[in-house]
Amino acid sequence: MERALGLMCGAGVLPARVAREAKRRGFRIVAFAFGETPGLDGAVDRLVPSSVADIAAVLAGLRAERVSAAVFCGRFGARELLQARGDAAAEAIVARGGAGLSDAGLLHGVLGTLTDLGIEVLDQRPFYGDWITSAGPIGRRDATAAERADVARGFRIARRLAESGVGQTVVVRRGRAAAVEASEGTTETIRRGLSLAGPGAVVVKAVAPDNDYRFDVPSVGPETLEVMAAGGAAALAIETGRVLVLERERAVELADRTGIALVGVAGDPDGRA
Length: 273
Hints:
Blueprint: E1 4-9, H1 14-24, E2 28-33, E3 46-49, H2 55-64, E4 69-73, H3 88-96, H4 103-116, E5 120-121, E6 136-137, H5 145-163, E7 169-173, E8 176-180, H6 186-197, E9 202-205, E10 219-220, H7 222-231, E11 235-239, E12 244-245, H8 248-258, E13 261-265
Parallel strand pairs: 1-2, 1-4, 2-3, 4-5, 9-11, 10-12, 11-13
Antiparallel strand pairs: 6-13, 7-8, 7-9
Helix pairs in contact: 3-4, 6-7, 7-8
């Protein structure tokens, strides 16, 4: 019997990518769509329009379909659970998340609720195939020696930043950090950093060692590269096996066309970690 996979679909292109790989692996796919999810038609066995405002219906659907595993993908707002007034299931998840009402607490509440139903929440990365960063040049151009020196510097800063829970992205030029990510996100950090550093800067994205890939896979993509090209960036270095390249073919084409070195780095690129 096929194992039933509950595909918990946020907005964007990722659900269709995960669905194709899950089907290749032999799952029967029941997709619960919480946002605009292009490309799912024909890729799943059942598509269930869903809402954070009616979590009880989602849990009932998971039970009815005998789902034994789930994958979260796409853009979700965990804090939307706080707005689900009158839904006892959502309120129970929020209560289970603890008094702090943090994103981590809310996700812990989701995980506990699904575990009680006998549903295993899976790491997303195996379902993304070659969109997960590989080591070395991803595009046509490799980083130069000078760019690699900035990558090494940026990686050390970005890793500490990620470990502290502040952000994941750093913009560096000639050994000096021009911007570090905070609440504004990757794209705005890059835009700000390049406005300060000028042409030739490198962008580095690293991930905390304890990142939970069941709920969050850090990513870059075509939008990242468009902003970098507009600001004259020279290279984008991302952590091997831990960062997702959205729409990889399009991203690589953009990198090649604009001369940006798109590279995967494993661990601390200067060998200290």
